[in-house]
Write a structure and sequence with these properties.
By secondary structure, this protein is α+β, with helices and mostly antiparallel strands. The chain is 32% helix and 26% strand. Bound molecules: zinc ion. The site of zinc ion (ZN) has 4 residues, from helix 1 and helix 2.
């Protein structure tokens, strides 16, 4: 599988959650990347921006935690850790 699918799934998961929550946008996305993941961090970022375009995820800050633990059971995977949504009722005008 080309890594495009991997990134697309992740972005769609966040976009879907944002839509469900009626968020205006996504401010941050945190992912964990295993040392044997089939994609480099730089390449992941490229695909992430591409896939996020036109979705509520566009413009979100991507935080990548790179693991170097080859023994980790998820060493081959990229995992979505958490994300932060911008909700309309959280707006503050001061
Ligand atoms: Zn690629």
């Amino acid at each position: 599988m080309h890594e495009t699918g991997l990134v697309r799934d992740l972005v769609q998961k966040v976009a879907h959650a944002a839509q469900e929550a009626r968020a205006e946008s996504v401010s941050d996305v945190h992912v964990w990347m295993g040392v044997l993941a089939p994609i480099s961090e730089a390449h992941f970022r490229e695909h992430f921006e591409e896939e996020a375009r036109g979705t509520p995820v566009a413009g979100a800050v991507l935080h990548v935690e790179s693991s170097d633990d080859i023994q980790n059971e998820n060493a081959q995977h990229v995992m979505l850790k958490r994300f932060c949504l911008r909700l309309p009722d959280k707006k503050r005008h001061t």
